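Batch job 17 of 40 flagged for manual review because the log was empty.
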Amino acid sequence: MTSEPNHDHQARNKVETHVIELPAEYYSGGIIPEGEVLYCVAVNGDILKTPKGAPITNTQRRPLRQLANEIENNDFREPEPVSLYELCSIQLDVDLFDKNQNTLNHFRDLVNHDPLMEFILTNKDDRFMSLLALVYHHLDHFLFGFRDFRRGGFRRQAENQAETKAPTKTELLENLAKKLYQNFEGFSVYERTVFLATLKEFKSCLLANMLASVSISPRELAWILPTVNSSSEEELDDDDENNDFAEGVFKKAECMRTYLELFPPRLSRLEQMIQNGESKILEFKSTLRWNIRAGKEDAAMEHAVLKSVAAFLNTDGGTLLV
């Protein structure tokens, strides 16, 4: 007995996508606000939604056309671990500004279990260090005390010839946790999406920060990860295995970079901090010394600002915008 292809099944599985204006029923009260046009993707006539049912929309057609192409190429197969659809789903379905989750203690835990940082702080092999030169260069400028830690012991400062003790591993990781936490607080919703996706896929909060802040390219990431995953020079020399792994890393990182480039443009760090609002490490003041109500300088205004600065210095640090 021979089986014939099921043409009805093939027809049902044919994917057709269109970028259309979001129907009025998806707006509050069923009314489209004047001057506001949102676009969405229709897949075989149905609006494309996240797993939690949120329609994926944008004010521009271009990113949605890219998403539509991905859906058509996927053709109802299981989505890739990292895809534009998965990233849009994280953006819409996950509370990216959850104050209970995004805490300094959470970042301390991430840093203490970061495989890249553990590799860097414990591996002294010159060959591995040369392959990770990009990460070392980034940390030299990003992380206070890292250069001194690498050199070890004491160093002389050119200004006063005073000896300064290098930070311990514990102090260094604490500095990194604070820096990553402060960076994350300044990230947009799109950068937070890439940060979480990278963290989930590659288990490193340091790499997640570098990719989300565009401090590393997809190809550079694909160069770094095989090095970290190699426990010996023999594994590092296994070109076929490392090339396959690196190509998979590149495709995932390239998708995340595409997502950042397609969706709304990046704000400046200052603009993004203002948009995100006040937090434990960010405070706004309308004036430094001028009393707006009295219309004159007021020492009490300066005192209030100094109290905020002192509070940051006595806790985990922070930023004051005046």
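Reviewer: the log was empty due to a logging misconfiguration, but the result itself is present. The first strand starts at residue 17 and ends at 21. Unflagging and moving on to job 18.
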